[in-house]
Amino acid sequence: RQVPQLIEMHTFRDAIDVNYQGMAITGEELSGVPLEDHNVASKELIKALEIREEYMRRIGNFFPTTEKYELRRKDGVTHFYHADGTRETKFDDCYISQEKFLLDTEILTAMIVNGPMKSFCYRRLSYLQNKFSLHVLMNELRELHEQKCVSHRDFYNIRKVDTHIHAASSMNQKHLLRFIKKKIKTDGKTIVGGKPITMREVFEGMGIDAYDLSVDMLDVHADRNTFHRFDKFNAKYNPVGESRLREIFIKTDNHVGGKYFAERSRTLVELLDNIFLPLFEVTNDPASHPELHRFLQQVSGIDSVDDESKHEFVHFDIRTPVPEKYTDKENPPYNYYLYYMYANLSLLNAFRRSRGMNTFALRPHCGEAGHVNHLVPVLQYLYYLVQMGIAMSPLSNNSLFVSYQRNPMHEFMQKGLNVSLSTDDPLQFHYTKEALMEEYSIAAQVWKLSSCDMCELARNSVLQSGPNFKEEGVLGNDIHRTNVPDIRVSYRHEALVDELTNIFRSRMFF
C-alpha cells in the first residue's frame, strides 16, 4: 500500500491538486430536479450566457488604427464621418441594435418567470450555499494554517479596493468639518461662487462663525429619518442645509471645470452629448482636452444610478421614440437610458482601442430599492455562472432601505458570487477615518467572517477594479500577495467548473 505524500503548505501554488477535504455527489441525477426540467433550464441558461458573451464581445471590440473623424449623433448613437462627408461603416457592428436589445430583454424576462428555471436555479444556489458550509466545516483549520505559514502578510496589509464610492462624499464628517474650519481661517477672503463674494461673507450671511461649527450642525450624516426616503438622503449632501456650501466644498466648480455638466440638459440628446461628446472628442483628438485625456487613463468604468423605487410610467419598446424625437413629459425608463449608454460606450471603446487607448466597463447600479426581480434565483445563478462583480454597501443600505441583518451580502458570498465590500458615501454613513475598514470590521462582527473570508472579499475587490487579469483558479492566486489560501481558491474554482459542466453536458439532450 502506497503511503500518500504530504504536500508542504509553501508548495501549494506549485501543486496540480490542492490537498483539502471535498465532497463528491454521485448518481445519475445530480441536479435534484427531473431530467426534463434540467434540460429545459440548462438550455435557457446557455442561451442567457451566449447573450451576455455577445454583449461583452461587442463592448470590448478591436479595430486597426484610424484617422481623425467628424462626430455626429443619429438615433441617439454617435457615428463617425470622414473629412469628405462619407460615413465610416466599420464601427456599425460594435453595438447591439435597439431591436435586438429589446428582444434579449424579453428573453431574459421570460426566463425569470419560467417555472422549471426558477426551481432549478433555486436548488443549485441552495446546494452551493450548503456545500460551502460543509467546506468550511471540513477545511477551516487547514485554511487558517495555510495563512499562518505566509510571512509578513495578513488582512491589514493586503490590497483592498473601495469598489463603489462617490468622490463628493469620500471623506467623513469630522474631516469635512476640519477642512471647512481651516478654509474659513486661511482662505476667508477668497472669492467663491459665480458672484463676487468671499467665503467669509458666505458664512457671515448665514450667521455662522468657524468656532460655532460642529458635526451636528453640518447635518450630513444619514439617520433613521432617511430610511426609505431617498429625497431626504439627497438633502444630506448640503452641509448646514445650504446648497452654497455644497457648491464650494463638495461639488466641482462648474464655472471653471464643469463646462459640460454645468448646463442643464433639456433633452435626452443634450444629456447624451454632455456625457459622451467630450469622451469621443478627446479620443478623436487628445490635444483638444489634455486634462480629460490624462484623467481617462485612470478610469476603468462608468456607472448609472437613480432612485429605482420610483414608478416608471413609460415602457421601453419598439415604438419608443429615439432620443432626438423623445418629447414625452415623463422620464424614460431605466433600461432606455442603459441601452443608449451601452451603445455609445461600445462605440467609444472600439474607437479608443483602435487608437491604442484604454477602454471602459459599464457598471450600472442594481439598487436595493429597485424591483424584486433584482434578487430572483435565475438572475442570481446567472451572476454566479459568469462571476459578474457585485459591489455591495451594507452600511449604506442599512441607513436607506435594507436593515443590516437582512442584507444578502453574506449569503451571496457563501454561494460563491463575486461580491466585494464598498463604502458608497463615507460622509453620510461612516464615523472613522478608515471607512472601508469600518465596513469590513462590522461585517466580520455581524456575520462572524473568518480571516479567510475577509481576504477573499478583499481579493474580489481588486479583481473587480479592472486589472488585466487572465489566470483562473489556483494559478491566478498568489497567497503571498492576497493572503487567500489556495484551498479556498481551488474550492471556488472547482465548484464553478462543476456547475458549468452540469449545464453544458445537457446539450446532448437538446
Folded structure, characterized:
With 510 residues, the protein is mainly α. Helices cover 47% and strands 5% of the residues. It contains 20 helices and 8 strands. The strands form 4 sheets. It has a two-stranded antiparallel ribbon. A hairpin with a 2-residue loop joins strand 1 and strand 2. The N terminus is likely disordered. The chain has a domain of 220 residues: Alpha-Beta Barrel (TIM Barrel), CATH 3.20.20.
Fold blueprint:
Elements: H1 35-59, E1 70-74, E2 77-81, H2 98-112, H3 115-148, H4 173-186, E3 191-192, E4 197-198, H5 199-205, H6 215-218, H7 230-235, H8 243-250, H9 259-262, H10 268-284, H11 290-296, E5 301-302, H12 334-354, E6 361-362, H13 377-386, E7 390-392, H14 394-400, H15 409-415, E8 419-421, H16 426-429, H17 435-447, H18 451-464, H19 479-482, H20 486-504
Parallel strand pairs: 5-6, 7-8
Antiparallel strand pairs: 1-2, 3-4
Helix pairs in contact: 1-2, 1-3, 3-13, 3-15, 3-20, 10-12
